[in-house]
Inverse folding.
C-alpha cells in the first residue's frame, strides 16, 4: 500500500477513504491484476483479485474503514457486481471533495451541487439504454446479411484492444466495469445500426443548450440528506430513476417480455463478459440449460428471456484441471473417499430420499424448544450406561429409514457423525449442509416433503426417483481428498456450476468471477435493457458535467432564485459562484476512472498519456454540441465494416460491450453518498464546526 501524508487539521476521513480506495485501482478494466496481502505479524500472505476479498483482508478498524466495508458488502450482497466501480469512485470523489474544500467551497454547497450533478448524469445516461430484444433483433439481422450461424458482431465504441494486450484469461475480469480499450479510432466507412442512427439523429435535432440548462436545475434538492440514510446507504425514494424507460427505449421497442432463442443470448453474454470469456461461457451455459428445462416442462420450443438465478449453485473443486469446469443439471456435491463404495452401490438403482430442514442430531430442537444446558438426566434402574440417549435415538432413526426404504437423506443443518457412520454401514448416504434451495428443488421433483425432525418422516414424506452417480469418476479427487457426486431426478429445476482449478488459491477468485458474470446476465435479462458499454456511459457523464459547468460560468444561473424557494439567501447566492468548480471536481472523478481503465488495458504506459487521449475526445464531444450524438457516431465507426461484407476475416472483431443498468447507477449513488456522509461527519465532529475551510496546515502524521 502507498504511503500518504495525513493532516490531522484537515478531513481525515476523506483522506482515509481515498487511501483505502487506491488499493483497488488495479481491479478496474478487463486485465485486472491480483494482489498479495501480507500479514506482518504472522508473515502469512493471501492472494486476492476482488474488491470484497481485498477489504476482507485489510485491517479496517477505523470508523471510515467500517463504513467503506459495509458499503462494499451491501453492493455485493444486493447485486454481486459493481464493487470495483464503487470502491474506485469512492476514492476519486473523496479526493475531489477534498479539493473543493481546499478551494474554499462551503460544505453545504459541495453536498448540494454534487448531488445535483450525479442526478443529472443519472438522467442523461438513460439515452444510452438498449433494450435486449433490440440486441436479439440486431443479431438476427447480422445472421441474415452474413449467412453465418454465429459471428462476433460490432466493436467497442472508441477503442480497440491491441493484439498484444493480455485479457482476463490471464488476469481475471472486470467487476461491473465497461471495457474501454485502447488504439486510435478506425477509419472504416460510417454506417450506424438503425437503432443507433435514429437515436443520434433524434439527439442532434434537439435544442441541446436548453435541455442541458433544464437538467442543470432539475433535481438540486430532490435527494434527502445522506445523513438520513441507513448504514448500508440503501435508497428507495429515488430508485425509480433507473427504472424509467428512456426516450430511446420508448421509441425503438416495447418493454413487454419477449421470447428468444439460445443463439440470441450469445451477443448479450459476450458483451457482458467484460473480457472474462471462460466465466461467462459457464454462466451462459447455465441460462441455456435452464431455458431447455423450461421448454421440456412446458412442452414448447420458445424459452422466456428470464433467468432464475436462485436455482444455480456452485461446487468448487481445487486441484483438478481447469478444463473440468462445467455446468450440470442437478446437485453436485463432495463426499469423503470413504463413501466411494457406498456410491457404487447406490448408482445402479433409483433411490428414495428424505429431506430434513433442521439438524440431524439427537440434541437438536426447533428454535424455542432447545433443552436447557444445566439439566442432567439421571439413569433409572435397569438402564445400562452404554444405552445412551444418542445411541437409542440413532437406532430409532436407522429403524425408521429401514422401514420406509430411505437410502438418501439431505439435511440443511449439521449431521451426527455417529449416525452418518451407522447409515453408511447400512448403505444409506447422509449429506449435510445442503441449502434450502436444493431441498426445495428435490421436493418439487421427487415428491418428497421437507420435515423438521427425522422422526416426522412417514411414507407420504419420502420422495423417489433420485439417481446418485459420480460426477466424473471416483479417481477425480480434489485437494481435500474428496470426490464429487451428482444427485438428480427427472424434471429437477436445479443446476450446479462445477469450478475447478489446479491452483487452490485461485478457486475463490474463479468463483467470484463466475458469480459476477452470472449476475450481470441475470440483471440484464430481468431489466430487459442494458447500457452501451466500452466507457460510453462514463464518457457521457464526463462531457455532460463539463457542459453544465461552462453554462454556469457563462450564464451565471440567473434563475437560481426561482428554483430554490425554500433555501436561505446565503445558499442561493453561493451556489452560482461555486457550482462550476464543484461540477468540474465531480467530473474529474469520471476522468480518473476512464484513465485508470485505459492504463489497466496496457495500452498506455502512464496516466498522462491516457488523460491526453480522453481530453482529445472530450474536446471533440463538446465542440460537436451534442456529446450523445458524438458517442453514438464514434461507437458505430468501428462496427460499420461488419454490415457490408460477408468475409469479415480481415477485420479485427471485438464484440460490442454492454453494462448492467441498476447495479452501475446504484454504485455511483452509494459511492457519492458515502463520500458526502464522511464529509459532513468530518466537518461537524472531527474537524469541528469552527474549522470549515481547509487551509494548508502543518503535517501531523503518516498513514500507511
Amino acid at each position: 500500500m502507498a504511503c500518504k501524508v495525513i493532516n490531522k487539521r484537515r478531513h481525515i476521513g476523506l483522506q482515509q477513504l481515498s487511501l483505502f480506495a487506491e488499493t483497488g485501482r488495479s481491479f478496474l478494466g478487463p486485465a485486472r491484476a491480483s494482489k498479495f496481502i501480507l500479514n506482518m505479524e504472522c508473515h502469512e500472505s493471501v492472494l486476492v483479485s476482488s474488491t470484497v476479498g481485498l477489504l476482507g483482508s485489510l485491517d479496517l478498524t477505523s470508523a471510515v474503514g467500517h463504513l467503506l466495508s459495509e458499503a462494499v458488502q451491501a453492493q455485493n450482497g444486493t447485486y454481486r457486481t459493481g464493487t470495483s466501480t464503487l470502491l474506485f469512485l469512492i476514492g476519486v470523489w473523496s479526493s475531489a471533495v477534498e479539493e473543493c474544500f481546499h478551494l474554499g467551497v462551503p460544505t453545504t454547497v459541495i453536498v448540494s451541487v454534487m448531488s445535483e450533478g450525479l442526478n443529472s448524469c443519472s438522467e442523461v445516461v438513460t439515452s444510452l439504454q438498449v433494450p435486449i430484444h433490440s440486441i436479439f433483433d440486431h443479431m438476427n439481422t447480422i445472421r441474415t446479411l452474413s449467412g453465418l450461424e454465429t459471428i462476433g458482431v460490432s466493436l467497442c465504441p472508441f477503442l480497440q484492444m491491441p493484439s498484444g494486450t493480455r485479457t482476463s484469461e490471464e488476469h481475471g475480469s472486470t467487476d461491473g466495469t465497461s471495457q474501454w480499450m485502447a488504439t486510435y479510432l478506425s477509419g472504416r466507412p460510417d454506417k450506424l445500426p438503425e437503432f443507433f442512427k435514429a437515436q443520434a439523429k433524434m439527439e442532434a435535432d434537439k435544442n441541446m443548450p436548453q435541455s442541458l440548462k433544464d437538467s442543470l436545475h432539475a433535481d438540486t434538492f430532490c435527494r434527502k440528506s445522506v445523513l438520513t440514510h441507513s448504514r448500508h446507504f440503501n435508497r428507495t425514494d429515488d430508485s425509480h430513476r433507473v427504472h424509467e424507460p428512456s426516450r430511446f427505449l420508448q421509441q425503438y421497442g416495447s418493454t413487454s417480455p419477449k421470447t428468444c432463442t439460445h443463439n440470441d443470448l450469445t451477443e448479450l453474454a459476450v458483451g457482458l463478459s467484460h473480457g472474462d470469456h471462460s466465466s461467462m461461457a459457464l454462466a451462459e451455459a447455465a441460462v441455456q440449460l435452464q431455458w431447455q428445462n423450461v421448454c421440456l416442462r412446458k412442452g414448447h420450443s420458445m424459452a422466456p428471456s428470464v433467468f432464475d438465478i436462485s436455482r444455480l449453485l456452485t461446487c468448487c473443486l481445487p486441484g483438478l484441471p481447469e478444463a473440468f469446469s462445467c455446468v450440470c443439471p442437478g446437485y453436485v456435491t463432495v463426499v469423503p473417499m470413504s463413501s466411494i463404495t457406498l456410491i457404487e452401490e447406490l448408482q445402479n438403482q433409483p433411490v428414495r430420499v428424505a429431506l430434513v430442514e433442521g439438524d440431524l442430531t439427537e440434541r437438536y430442537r426447533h428454535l424455542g424448544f432447545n433443552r436447557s444446558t444445566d439439566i442432567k438426566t439421571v439413569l433409572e434402574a435397569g438402564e445400562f450406561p452404554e444405552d445412551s440417549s444418542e445411541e437409542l435415538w440413532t437406532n430409532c432413526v436407522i429403524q425408521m429409514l429401514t422401514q420406509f426404504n430411505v437410502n438418501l437423506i439431505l439435511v440443511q443443518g449439521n449431521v451426527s457423525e455417529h449416525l452418518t457412520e451407522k447409515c453408511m454401514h447400512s448403505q444409506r448416504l447422509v449429506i449435510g449442509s445442503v441449502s434450502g434451495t436444493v431441498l426445495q428443488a428435490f421436493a418439487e421433483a421427487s415428491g418428497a416433503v421437507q420435515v423438521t425432525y427425522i422422526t416426522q418422516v412417514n411414507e407420504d414424506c419420502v420422495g423417489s426417483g433420485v439417481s446418485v452417480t459420480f460426477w466424473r469418476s471416483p479417481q477425480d479427487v480434489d485437494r481435500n481428498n474428496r470426490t464429487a457426486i451428482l444427485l438428480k431426478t427427472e424434471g429437477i429445476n436445479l443446476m450446479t456450476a462445477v469450478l475447478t482449478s489446479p491452483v487452490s488459491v485461485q478457486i475463490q477468485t474463479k468463483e467470484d468471477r463466475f458469480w459476477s458474470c452470472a449476475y450481470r446476465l441475470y440483471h440484464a435479462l430481468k431489466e430487459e435493457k442494458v447500457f452501451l458499454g466500452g466507457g460510453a456511459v462514463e464518457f457521457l457523464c464526463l462531457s455532460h458535467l463539463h457542459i453544465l459547468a461552462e453554462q454556469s460560468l457563462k450564464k451565471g444561473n440567473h434563475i437560481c432564485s426561482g428554483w430554490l424557494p425554500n433555501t436561505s439567501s446565503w445558499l442561493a447566492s453561493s451556489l452560482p459562484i461555486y457550482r462550476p468548480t464543484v461540477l468540474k471536481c465531480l467530473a474529474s472523478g469520471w476522468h480518473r476512472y476512464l484513465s485508470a481503465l485505459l492504463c489497466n488495458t496496457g495500452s498506455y504506459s502512464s496516466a498522462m498519456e491516457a488523460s491526453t487521449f480522453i481530453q482529445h475526445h472530450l474536446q471533440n464531444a463538446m465542440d460537436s454540441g451534442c456529446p450523445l450524438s458524438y458517442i453514438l457516431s464514434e461507437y458505430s465507426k468501428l462496427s460499420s465494416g461488419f454490415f457490408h461484407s460477408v468475409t469479415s476475416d480481415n477485420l479485427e472483431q471485438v464484440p460490442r460491450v454492454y453494462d448492467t443498468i441498476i447495479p452501475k447507477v446504484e454504485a455511483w449513488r452509494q459511492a457519492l453518498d458515502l463520500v458526502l456522509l464522511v464529509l459532513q461527519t468530518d466537518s461537524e465532529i472531527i474537524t469541528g464546526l469552527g474549522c470549515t475551510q481547509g487551509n494548508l496546515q502543518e503535517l501531523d502524521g503518516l498513514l500507511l
The radius of gyration is 29 Å.
